[in-house]
């Protein structure tokens, strides 16, 4: 990239990611302009497009990074600290729901209209790239599910589907307003407890069948 050495390119890209994370969380994708992103970094609007094709692409990359970092933190405080699969799944889902409710970047993604921008960005992604990202998103949890299935403490079935069921709790926050503050926590906790209990089974159940 003419005009920037490798160190400067990396610095500008990192600053755009940091600035985007802050602005998208505070104002959302639609209300954040290219100028909002470039001014704090000290680059011209046109220079932005030498790093990202659009603000939607920047947003998408930020979501991927934040998602992986969040998953690592949640797993460290659930699957890696709980020996019992049901308790581990229940804690994982609870922490994931907490993050979706408290992190404005994720809350806007699910409760707002940001999904449309993500889908538009993904239109330009090849099937191979999509499968690679999909595999990466499940890679954090699959080893735990597969190990529990091998010992008989988690139900049989496609482990990827089981991971998907656990992750579905993140969409509950989209219905927070409709359910109301009085009922939402009860609905969320009941959902988490029901899924965790439904995916697991007492040790030794296989021997009795």
Provide an overview of this structure.
- With 209 residues, the chain is an all-alpha fold.
- It is 73% helix and 0% strand.
- It contains twelve helices and no strands.
- The protein has helices at residues 6-31, 34-38, 45-48, 55-76, 85-102, 104-111, 114-122, 127-139, 142-151, 159-167, 176-199, 205-208.
- It is globular, with a radius of gyration of 20 Å.
- The model is unreliable at 203-209 (pLDDT under 50).
Keywords:
12 helices; 209 residues
Largest sheet: none
State which percent range the strand residues make up: under 5%
What is the CA-based Rg, rounded?
A: 20 Å
Average predicted confidence as pLDDT: 87
SSE ordering? HHHHHHHHHHHH
The helix fraction, in percent, is: over 70%
Can you count the beta strands?
A: 0
Q: Number of helix segments? A: 12
Backbone structural class = mainly alpha
State the end-to-end distance.
64 Å
- The best one-word shape is globular
Low-confidence stretches: 203-209
